[in-house]
Design goal:
With 307 residues, this protein is mainly alpha-helical. The protein folds into 2 domains: 4-216, no CATH class; 217-307, no CATH class. The chain has helices spanning 14-36, 42-46, 48-66, 68-73, 88-102, 110-135, 165-186, 192-208, 223-242, 248-268, 281-303, and strands at residues 4-7, 10-13, 218-221, 277-280. Strand 1 and strand 2 (10-13) form a beta hairpin. 27% of the residues are buried.
Length: 307
């Protein structure tokens, strides 16, 4: 474990070092991809402080949600910004949320920006997961495989060899970055990188989270829940695609019917005796991200057939 590196009187925290490296290289990569896609980066110069704030708030909020137990026990810790709890993915999500508002008044659509944000985020995540491995964070379950690693640290609850799940993630995100660059070179429609990237990342997250051994937020779901989620996103996609063809009365009826059907299910759900599966919260988010991205790309291509 290399949680910190001592250089004379100075101590460099390994995860922080990798995080700053990921932030620097990821931002440089993002801007270069934006320029190669003929996207204007002037708004990043004009709104630099807003994007910096969005990155910070997104990263902090997502990290606190992941460790909500700690902050429930000690609410004042929310104000301790030096505790090192920060999510690189959350920061990228914060930038994406701000971009979704900024691009409403620009020529380029949000999906075009997402196509360049995603490869840069994947590259940064690969470095971030290497830092987590060195610091013993987000560790795996015990394993008898020869590549298992052993930590001698108070923050790791296992003293036996465990899955180096951080290296699984790091290798995958390096690979995904290369895949997205290849897709980018051979595609002519907006959304290809986003659809491929989020699909592969979601599937990988669902699999890799099975090897996680640290504490996470548990989610209990049934097979019907996933079916209803699929139907919900399909209904939303149909609504977004056909919105301009519907009259106001039809739109109100459509929205009311959706709310009635899905609301009724969640009301009677506790009394339905169906097999329940335990998931990590990140796995559920991966499913939602996959469904939302698929619907969004399809709707975007319907609305902007020339992109």
């Amino acid at each position: 474990m290399f949680e910190a590196i001592e250089i004379g009187p100075f101590i460099l925290w390994t995860h922080l070092l990798f995080f700053l490296l990921a932030l620097w290289l990821g931002m440089e990569f993002f801007l270069r991809l934006a320029l190669s896609a003929n996207l204007s980066i002037q708004q990043f110069k004009d709104r630099a402080w807003q994007f910096a704030l969005a990155f910070f708030l997104g990263g902090r909020i997502v990290a606190m949600i992941g460790d909500y137990r700690v902050y429930l026990r000690d609410p004042l810790r929310v104000l301790m910004l030096t505790d090192g709890n920060f999510s690189y993915l959350g920061g990228a999500i914060g930038i994406g949320v701000l971009l979704s508002f900024v691009t409403r008044t620009s020529r380029a659509t949000f999906l075009q920006w997402l196509d360049v944000l995603l490869p840069a985020t994947c590259f940064g995540l690969a470095l971030d997961w290497l830092g987590r491995f060195a610091a013993g964070q987000s560790y795996g379950k015990p394993t008898d495989m020869f590549w298992g690693v052993t930590y001698d640290a108070i923050n790791v609850r296992y003293t036996v060899p465990i899955h180096p799940v951080q290296l699984y993630y790091a290798a995958f995100y390096f690979f995904l970055t290369l895949v997205l660059l290849i897709v980018r070179k051979h595609t002519f429609r907006a959304g290809a990188e986003s659809l491929v990237g989020i699909t592969l990342a979601s599937l990988a997250t669902i699999v890799f989270e099975l090897f996680r051994g640290d504490f996470g937020i548990p989610v209990f779901a049934t097979s019907v829940d996933f079916l209803l989620l699929l139907l919900l996103f399909m209904a939303l996609g149909l609504f977004a695609t056909m919105e301009l063809r519907f009259s106001q009365r039809v739109m109100i009826f459509y929205e009311s019917a959706m709310a009635l059907v899905f609301g009724a299910y969640f009301l009677i759900r506790p009394w339905i005796g169906l097999p329940t599966y335990e998931l990590r919260f990140t796995q559920l988010l991966s499913v939602l991200a996959l469904l939302a991205t698929t619907v969004y790309v399809i709707v975007h291509r319907k609305r902007y057939p020339h992109l």
